[in-house]
């Protein structure tokens, strides 16, 4: 009798299991078929929609894509394209891959640490800093990149210029160009070169004002770095200084456009040859302000451009002569 009961129970269990499988299959078929016309469905991953291929009914929309937006065909390519974690940067000596221990003596809940825990965290911070700069090369790099960041902030240079300057300094360090030269000198020269490459140049006077080395050393080191690393840097264009000077002086777009026209005329007449691009830009801005009835004094332009008023007057007359020669019959 007990054997019959067991057999009956097992049969009921198998029947229930078969019914569940049938329901699941029917549901899966329903999911693959259009509820309107019974046609096949297709998933549009670009728009996140499931659409009937026959009648065009949108069955599902705003579906979540749990995978990455890129494709990889091997493990190496997958590792290269993966962006998990913080982005690396050349502006830090360890490229931002090390761990920082915060200086707030608080736990995860914002509570103050006890005296023994504070001492322990202080020891951990000390050892962490020692491990981050394990040799003299890393200490050198840490000091130089800190200098680049400080000077770039003082000069208002964007992040891409800092990144380029960091790459130039790393190349100089790897090619052993530093012996006999100061860290501050090479880092300043790297920033000066990066600013010129990015089209946001700063004059040597501006650079030396925020640097810890003299102007002559910056110029000498800059020529050496450019020559040894074979950097392709075009001569500074006076027009690149115009937007900054005009903005600092509060001039209109019309005055800035007029200054550019004066400089383009000077190039056509070859007046710019052998002249300081900063002086030409300052004189063009001063002349444009007068031509557009926006009164700006020579002393104000001199202060913004960091050059003498005598230079502005000389370049000013040369620009006007070039402009007049164009219009002469």
UniProtKB/TrEMBL annotation:
The annotated regions of Polar residues compositional bias extend over 87-96
Question: What stretch or stretches form a coiled coil here?
Answer: none
Positions of the TFIIB-type domain: 30-60
Give binding positions for Zn(2+).
34, 37, 52, 55
Entry protein name: Transcription initiation factor IIB
Q: Which GO terms describe its biological process?
A: DNA-templated transcription initiation
Q: Region (Disordered): which ranges?
A: 1-46, 74-96
List, in alphabetical order, the Gene Ontology terms for molecular function in this entry: DNA-binding transcription factor activity; zinc ion binding
Q: What does this protein do?
A: Stabilizes TBP binding to an archaeal box-A promoter. Also responsible for recruiting RNA polymerase II to the pre-initiation complex (DNA-TBP-TFIIB).
Top-level taxon in the UniProt lineage: Archaea
Family matches, as NCBIfam families: PRK00423.1 (NF001658)
Source organism of this protein record = Halolamina salina
Q: Where is the composition biased (Acidic residues)?
A: 20-30
Per UniProt, which keywords does this protein have? Answer: Metal-binding, Repeat, Transcription, Transcription regulation, Zinc, Zinc-finger
Q: Where are the sequence repeats?
A: 146-229, 240-321
Q: Which family does it belong to?
A: Belongs to the TFIIB family.
Q: Which InterPro entries match?
A: Cyclin-like_dom, Cyclin-like_sf, TFIIB, TFIIB_arc, TFIIB_CS, TFIIB_cyclin, Znf_TFIIB
Residue spans of biased composition, Basic and acidic residues class:
74-83
Pfam families under this entry? TFIIB (PF00382), Zn_Ribbon_TF (PF08271)
The gene for this chain is tfb
